[in-house]
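re: that chain from earlier
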Amino acid sequence: MSATPTLEFNDFQQRALAVPEELDLFLGGGRGGGKSYLLALLALRHVEQYGAAARILYVRRTYKGLADAELIMRSLFGMVYGTDARFNAAEHIWRFPNGGYLELGQLESQSDYAKYQGRSFTLLLIDEAGQFPDPSLLDLLRSNLRGPRDVPIRMVVAANPGGPGHHWLSHRYVFRGKPWTVFDEPKSGREWVYGPSTFAGNSFIDREQYRAQLQSACPDDPELLRAWLDGDWAVNRGAYFAGCLDENRNVLDGVDEVPWGWHAYLAHDFGSSAPSVTYLMACSPGDTIDDRYYPPGSLLVLDELATHRPGNLNMGTGWTVPQLADAIHGMCRRWGVSPYGVADDAIFARGGHAAGSIADEFRLQGIYFEPARKADRVSGWNRMRRLLSHAGKPDRPGLYIARRCRYFWDTVPMLARDAKRIEDVDTTGPDHGADAIRYGCLRQEWATELKFVWEG
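^ sequence. v structure.
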């Protein structure tokens, strides 16, 4: 470098740069806090300190997302190195005059990981990690961290609240300890620091204009706006069910048996590589339990069977139909109910199964499913949201979910909207429990309509 440039940092960036390099770093906050520029600063410092030993990989989920990072790095590295830092746009690789190396990469699927397998990096920078619905690919990538003994290896993850990955990021990093304090993260076995930021602390942008942009981007989603503005991971995360799902209203406690005279049935969403989720639901004929009145048509979700890997709410355990059937039979025996109910239409498709269809395989195991009522996804979501919002009203049927249904409470309140179809759920998130409940709500709507026909 011919001259030492003057670099300015906001308070958040200064504080993050002061975190010792031996500690991994989660940069989680609202939009506009300066996280992406900070990642470029961390790369620059790593190259300056370790020269040819510095091997950096910057990752986003799609190549399209790399464009902003390239612009930031061209500006910063050009200011520091001039033309001595060379960027190969075809390979997305920076080569620095002291021998340091920085690669901008994309990671969306298992096949994408193949291009990194067996390679070594000393610094991993993960930007917009909230776009990853589960951490499995990033956990794989961590195995590529290795280097000389005198070079600290490190992983830095940046994300905003409210995306498909909100659930695992908040559980793994945000609620482990206070901001800017060291905590142990069990999955990686490493010590981490959580550094939050907001646009209000970034003096290098027009904050009023940026606030107006955020407000115009989500005019009908106040929870998402709050997450973006305040960087608050504890809000309803711009969730699809924000405004209709409230733990104080929808949680069900103290019901340990199917009430006499209530109709009970199963609601099932099949999965193998993805989780399989089965709920036991009961429909009220109009009854009072423990001084709480449930109007006719109210649905109580009493129990849950969810097959997901520990620590990953979006990945299944690979159970076969016989394994699932044994577990479902066990749940039904505990409650004294018959093993029949409703499931996704897809399991009734014939082809590729010895018994004809997945539903046929279940039937051979003594589990009897009927197809969910034919309806588009949005109609089902509207039915479910309406029941959730009516919970607690004395004259309207509502939807109540037992506290023991942990998969529901760990996933459904956090499900994000589909960015392209805001009336639908983002299917890259862990929506399997929500899907099962949706099928159960549609079945009850179908049964109610038949009852009116019979009585008419």
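The first strand starts at residue 24 and ends at 28.
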